[in-house]
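Final report, closing paragraph on structural work. Over the funding period we assembled a curated collection of sequence-structure pairs, and we close with a single example.
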Amino acid sequence: MALSTQIAADFVSAMLNTDEFAQSVTYLPAAGGSAVRNADFQEQPRTEDRDSHGRRVDVRSGLLFIATDATNGVAAPALDDEVTIGGEKWDLVSFSTHGGVHEMTVQRTTLLDRGAAGYRFQR
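Its predicted structure, as stored:
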């Protein structure tokens, strides 16, 4: 067995094990369909920004590590794809592939609404 094949197999059995680091996510390709897969998700600190209309938004981002094969992960990710993590939809904004693992940057943006006490999440 080639080293790259063994590394990919070890990643699936250890890092994508829900008893260890992984959680179940639903991958939603822009082309349609869905697939429930195990992935390691690491959320980054929140930031505030402005959208293209100048409105204040809460921006959450994170790294999602998922296998590159169609059985355990995603064979061909695309930038229009979405991922549901913990009941929330996240947009796939970039990805790179290393030795059988996709490292995906996902992002979730929520419009903030200004009230008397300051900004709050718009529902």
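The first strand starts at residue 23 and ends at 28. The radius of gyration is 17 Å. We thank the funder for supporting this effort.
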